[in-house]
Amino acid sequence: MRFHQAVTFLPTLHALELAKAADTQGYDGMYVSDHMFFPRDRQSRYTYSTREDGAPGFGDHWDPDTHWPDPWCLISAMAAVTERLEFTTGVYIAPARDLVTVAKQVGTAAVVSEGRVALGVGVGWCEEEFVATGQDFHTRGKRLDDMIPALRALWAGGWVEYHGPHYDVPAMRMEPSPPSPIPIIGGGHSAPALRRAATLCDGWVAAGAYKPDQARTYLDELAEQRRRAGRENEPFSIYLSLWARPDADLYRSFEEDYGVTDTLCAPAMVAKVDPSDPPEVQLQARLDASARFADEILAKMR
Prior knowledge:
Number of helices: 9
Number of strands: 10
Helix content: 40-55%
Mean pLDDT: 95
Distance between the termini: 9 Å
Strand content: 5-15%
Radius of gyration: 19 Å
CATH topology: TIM Barrel
CATH class: Alpha Beta
Order of helices and strands: EHEHEHEHHEEEHEHEHEH
Strand order of the largest sheet: 1-2-3-4-7-8-9-10
């Protein structure tokens, strides 16, 4: 099993320092989330919200000051200061951008990282972001279904083209092309999201952290979707985040019983940090938390 450390909600420059540390601590990758901005007047409701106002259930993290760096800029920067870590988005709201821009940004990050990226994608929930970028919010699911094969076509190298129901790309050269196929991981646990991952993607990534029983329910549904698609025996990555005390035996059980290949963890994100402390003190607390998780969990899993 591989372990990826999430840097969601953290100060942007802390992510770079954590990546350098994680590269030597035994982690397998870093996990980067995506939002473009915080709308002052938010009318959109978070897909999985349990709050009356529809806000994401992220405690005090979801506020206007939260850093949301562009994932591919951050991934390229982290790749430049590491040697072996892989980088995955969880999830990149691809249909809020145009197809060619997504293909160019992700493909370039794959080149500069020497193939150490995976594209985790989802449809998003914040309509205000789609309005700002000029993309249709209401067709985002259908467009993402078409974007997945389109991206694979545009990354093939040489003269490429694509003709689908939502995207029509005439012959073009888009260089540099990725050194190897970029895995596309479908995110979310709604019925359409599970269907998309099972039928179109190279894997599935959880939407947030689940309690173990919740995770088992979604993994059973995913397995059924893969069976219906005739893909149950194909290679398939499963990225899972558990809302439970870190436990090596628990992680092993999900690996053995459900085929979970990748665990998402967030020791630096949940580290005890006093906001009034200087930035360097806060960073050290996060680095210490990352090291403890490596010593207490990763060492037992190897």
